[in-house]
Amino acid sequence: MKFFIVLLVAGIAAALPAPQENNAANSTSNGKCDAKRTAQLVGGIQAHLNVQDMELKGIQTLQKLSTFAANGTSRAPPGNTTSNFGLEQQAVVAIQQNGITLREGNQKLAAELNSPARAGLDQLAASQTQEMDMVKALKGTGEGEMRTLEGLAKMVMDSTKLNEMNLVMAESACK
Hints:
The chain is mainly α and 175 residues long. Helices cover 75% and strands 0% of the residues. The termini are far apart.
């Protein structure tokens, strides 16, 4: 399952079009918008939203595994063992790294286009780094980490909302 998630994330990244040089052939006739590159930015932000959804699901899985550890139950949740916490943590970090790579590409393209999404993408950068550091610091010890995981889930949801606004802003550039 984890391999599938990593493969899916890699596939999303590979499917994104590469940024192209800005030239007259790529620009619309109104001179204010490069429709082709703006569409690339919109697609990149949407791809990042998909990655954020996977990140949240991974964090929710970590919460379940942490709850199991906090309860001190000798029986693992169905299909899981306590050693799965570390595996899931690694999968979440890989998802987050992919999200950072996507955001960096989107940020660069937004800057080149002078997109209204640029400011929001800049805000997203700081929260992504903090979220990844928090996941890396987890130990799978249960109760002591429940607040951290709850805060992390909220941060990811807030970042997703910000990125949804980035999507709207990017889409508005050529209207």
